[in-house]
TrEMBL record, chain A:
GO terms for cellular component: endocytic vesicle; late endosome; lysosome. Residues 184-221 are annotated as: Disordered. This is Ras-related protein Rab-7b. Gene3D superfamilies: P-loop containing nucleotide triphosphate hydrolases (3.40.50.300). It comes from the Eukaryota.
From TrEMBL, chain B:
This is Rab-GTPase-TBC domain containing protein, putative. SMART domains: TBC (SM00164). Residues 95-279 form the Rab-GAP TBC domain. InterPro entries: Rab-GAP-TBC_dom, Rab-GAP_TBC_sf, Rab_GAP_TBC_domain. GO terms for molecular function: GTPase activator activity; small GTPase binding. It comes from Angomonas deanei. Pfam families: RabGAP-TBC. PANTHER family: GTPASE ACTIVATING PROTEIN AND CENTROSOME-ASSOCIATED, ISOFORM B (PTHR47219:SF9), RAB GTPASE-ACTIVATING PROTEIN 1-LIKE (PTHR47219). Gene3D superfamilies: putative rabgap domain of human tbc1 domain family member 14 like domains, Ypt/Rab-GAP domain of gyp1p, domain 3.
Amino acid sequence: MSSNPTPAKKQLLKIIILGDSGVGKTSLMHQFVSKKFDSRYKATIGADFLTKELTVGDQVVSLQIWDTAGQERFQSLGSAFYRGADACVLVYDVTVQESFAHVGSWMEEFSIQAGRRDSVLIGNKTDLEDRRQVPTRTAQMWCDKQNAEGDKNDKTEMKYFETSARENTGVEEAFMAVAAAALARKASQPAPVPPPSTVNLNQNQPGNAGGSNNTNSGCSC
Amino acid sequence: MSGTETTNDTSSSAVTQYGFYKYPPAGVGVNRGEALAPSKKEFEGQRDQQPWKEEERWWLCSFAVYERLRRAGVATDEETTYFRNQWRHRLTAADPGGILRRLLWGYLSQQSVKVGEAAEGEVPAAVRDAIERDIGRTLPSHCLFAAADGIGRQSLRRVLLRLSAQDPEVGYCQGMAFPVATLLLHCPEEECYGVMRRLWWGRRWRLRDLFSPHFPLLTALLSILQQQIAQLLPRLHRHLAEEEMELSAIVAPWFLTLFTHQLPTALLARVWDFFILQGWRVLLQVAVYLLRKEEPVLVTLSMEEAVLHMRSDTTYQRVVDTETFIRAVLRVPIDDKVVEGLFPC
């Protein structure tokens, strides 16, 4: 499947996973990308990332998922990674009230560094239902509040998901939602330097989902 | 004496020579490990494989002579330098090996370090929780730390709690657990704590400045590395500038874990021999060496690709052979003065 000699131009999307230490950011990323769960991940120091190719609608995208260290003092090292992010994933642990309380500050930090972006909020570890501290309704309401409060001119959306990285429930849905949000943002933005277009007549061009402003003036400075 | 290779007859065992579980190929198995606990025999079989008696005698004599001079108060700076040079030459010449290494690290870390009594108070609950979360995420594939409440994890927890108690200002920082766990592979808990405290406060290492909020030492190390790259690796330097690449994305984890997260165990032990003897210089040398080795690839990559490239284990495992590696590292020209600039006063 990868031996195609002239692959269609892929859209590269960058997303960042944020949240307190130990909420399962690395596990979520690995579950989504490589469909496996291991209870023995090493703590993430600095940042790490994986990429996964997927199809959103009819567009092939390469999703670059950045996983960050969760301890607060690492925020000062994070800015380099936030740059150029298209969307963000905020994660908390449904069994740790505190990790939910911190979601707001993670989002704020991200907005300062990367600008406002669409995001998904993930309540992870639903397999530990008996230890749950944060009710679904509370998190959903918080999300709704964020969506209602947003700037009129710069509307961003936050969707809520609950997952279990251990049991692989809800992970795919959450990441597909954030990929779609990131792609929508990319498509609505004029590309800074349009790539020299080589129209391959034998293939359906997947690019430019918007379609209307597909002028391609050929300015390849 | 004869310098022959020790035979690593551990191929049939569940763990490597260094106690790491041999994992099935990536993607297979979930709760591996528990069923693979190594037998006592497997460990004993690995002991005493090297004829290191003469090596041991040399070190013990050298330490004894130096210690006598020091205690008599006649060890001048010149003399100290002489001894330290001797020790460095000896370490460069040969791998001291496991059991002797424990002795060397213990003694060498004491040199010119005075650490006062530890004020050990209560550890705040938040710090306790932060430590607890990382206990199971530190060298989880090593047999010492694999079991949920095995002795390795218990020691790791106690040492980390004591370390954060003796310096509440720094508390606990992610990254700290890795050097502690690495030391625990080489020495028992009490010694590990002692060595960590000396590395913490001793002016050669100042680990407390590495881990304290805003990472002052890390910032200083990064700027030294930037200068060194500008001088020694101009192509890479240009590429970093053109791509607006943040060097810290690649190298911050190296320094924050003292390379314990990246280097294979045997190599790491050799690098630490020099880290304990001399301080940060050797870690800067390793950083420059790795960047130089990968320079031809790195200059073709974006920042994201570069991080990925330098993160992959193969980049470190591909290293030829431990002794060739360490010699090449020690030849990287980094001026001692540059490193001394890290700690004014």
